[in-house]
Amino acid sequence: MSIQSKKRILIVTNELSPYLELTDFATILNKLSVKTFDSGMEIRVIMPRFGIINERRHRLHEVVRLSGINVVVDKEDHPLLIKVASLPNARLQVYFMDNEDFFKRKAVFRDEHQHFFDDNPERLIFFCKSALEIVKKFGWPPDVIHCHGWMTSLVPLFLKTAYKKEPVFVHSKTIFTAQRPQFEESLGEGFVKMVMNSAAIKDKELEPYNKSDNEALIYGACKYADVIVHGEPGLEDTSLSEFKSGRHKKVVSYSDEWMENIDPLFELYQSLTQE
Fold first, then answer.
1. Which is deepest, 167, 173, 248, 260, by most CB within 10 Å?
2. What's the structural domain count of the chain?
């Protein structure tokens, strides 16, 4: 298989074992990434560089040639730093999106008093945009983009709107891992306007996100993704029940065997690259 003929998989995620484990999917994605790499496909993983990730232990280092991009969030420029590490026991590169204002703190989504960070909406937008901007800078067109976690929930929207004419994403199929809401707070009345100020997106295109809470993020991501993977059991009985497998959407039901056998998810990658 030539380099040019290799299929390309991009995973954009909140979490990945061993760097950050918020749910069981951190381990599942680790296994899925390694299997995909070992199969001969090209794969890259992008995640936030949360401050609790130990850079020395995991051997993160800045990629100076890729850093220096400014990412617009709510009409303001924010510098993007790119760091990279090799996944242990694999020659697989994991790229970490970093910014001192958003990710330096030694926490993930809440402070020491369990208060939801006020700037989590900005952090969400910054991460989703920075993930796509760095892929543009790579000039590396992915066949499949697998988004996992609420911090990736704007990526399917961006790909179908603000980034739909970008040559690097023209043939990309998107997967979103749906889970139950992981926070109860609102992102604020100005969240949708903030997204509009950050990218060329019309008000109507943002309607699925109008509730500006975690449920709306999940719903909106599922609305725009090509494939939905149920990352938890019982999601058929939630607001996602309207999404059915059919001509324009594929839905993969949850399996409690994924921790031991990720072959069905790997086969999903394979099938999407062959369409």
1. 173
2. 1
